[in-house]
Amino acid sequence: MSPDRYLRTFDVLSLLVKHKQGLRLTEIKDALDLPMSSVHNMLQTMVSAEVASVTEDLRYSVGPRTVALALQTLQSLDIRSIARPHLQDLAKEIGDDVYLAIQVGKRVFYADRFLGTQRISLDIRLGESLFLHCTATGKLFAAYDPKLAAQAIARRMPKLTAVTITDPVKLENEFKRILKQGYSKSDEESVEGIIGYAVPIHDGAGKLAAAIHISVVGKRVTTPHERKLLDAARKCATQIEKHSGHAAPKP
């Protein structure tokens, strides 16, 4: 197959992924400005190879083999490897400790850590399950996942500090607030004297893939510092998302 034929195949796939309802032969021909016979032959080959699929009313869409390959590609992108250089730069920029958090099943935990420049910091062990009702990261993942939220509300909520949320209604309202503002904050709810922030990282499909967590000693937190910290974290998340295949604009 000639290089041009390969490129036309990708042009067809790029067109099909934008139209979930499928496209007819003439619509594909017009969109790509190609001869009818060439498009027809190409589509027949793609359907035979399961790269494309066709319905009874002759609408073409992306085939199962293409979908499987896309999913495998997404899975092969190691979020830790992608995020590491960006998170290292973030820790240097803001001076506070930065963590990468992920979810596996019902567990949310930190998978990587980057030390800031402050002498005092909180040593949080990697791989240790996080509380969903009082840590910034746990609350963020629960807010974005209804099943995880229901699990957090139904569980017993240990009161770790004087301000830990232990009321199911208040926690549910907290999840709603997190979704509205686009980040999570734990104001000494998990550890006295420590304020945590969590900012979402989305994957190529637009779903929550990971989170940036920033741990700050309470005395350092001022309104300007918080604003700077969140702005830097959001920019960092955007860079990670771009390298992960997600380039949709944030609200």
Protein model, in words:
It is a single chain. With 251 residues, the protein is α+β, with helices and mostly antiparallel strands. It has helices at 3-16, 25-32, 36-48, 64-76, 79-94, 136-144, 146-154, 168-181, 223-243, and strands at residues 52-54, 60-62, 97-104, 107-114, 184-187, 194-202, 208-217. The strands form 2 sheets. A 5-stranded antiparallel beta sheet has the order 4-3-7-6-5, sandwiched between helices. A hairpin with a 2-residue loop joins β3 and β4 (107-114). α2 packs across α3 (36-48), α6 packs across α7 (146-154) and α6 packs across α8. The protein is elongated and about 70 Å long. The two termini are 44 Å apart. Mean pLDDT is 87; it is low at 247-251.
Overall radius of gyration: 23 Å
Would you count the extended β strands for me? 7
What structural category do the secondary elements indicate? alpha+beta
Order of helices and strands: HHHEEHHEEHHHEEEH
Spatial separation of the terminal alpha carbons: 44 Å
CATH topology name of the largest domain, in short, is Beta-Lactamase
CATH class of the largest domain: Alpha Beta
CATH superfamily (homologous) name of the largest domain: GAF domain
Low-confidence stretches: 247-251
Q: Given the C-alpha coordinates, what overall shape results?
A: elongated
Question: How confident overall, as mean pLDDT?
Answer: 87
Largest sheet: 5 strands, antiparallel
Determine the strand fraction and express it as a percent band: 15-25%
Query: What strand line-up does the widest sheet have?
Result: 4-3-7-6-5
Helix content: 40-55%
